[in-house]
Design a protein that fits this description.
Layout (H helix, E strand, L loop, with lengths): L17 E7 L5 E12 L2 E5 L5 E5 L1 H4 L4 E5 L4
Antiparallel strand pairs: 1-2, 1-5, 2-3, 3-4
Length: 76
């Protein structure tokens, strides 16, 4: 039995960041907008839209780059 395992998780430094998400999710819903990262939970990211509506997405939707892309917006 292994004592340690390595798992992919969302970077907790995304919490509170503004992000742009573009593409289609696994359900075929189109995404192209700005969101605030409310919280990262292992392989799940919780987002808040401009209207205050909350969304959640899973890591596998971003991993290949074929479904969704996420860009962190930085202040200049």
């Amino acid at each position: 039995m292994e004592l340690f395992v390595t798992e992919k998780v969302f970077n907790a430094k995304l919490n509170g960041k503004a992000v742009h998400i573009k593409g289609y999710d696994v359900d075929g819903e189109k995404w192209d907008g700005l969101y605030l990262v409310k919280e990262t939970q292992f392989d799940k990211i919780l987002l808040t839209g401009r209207t205050g509506k909350e969304y959640s997405l899973y890591m596998e939707e971003f991993e290949t780059g074929e479904l969704l892309t996420l860009t962190v917006l930085e202040e200049k």
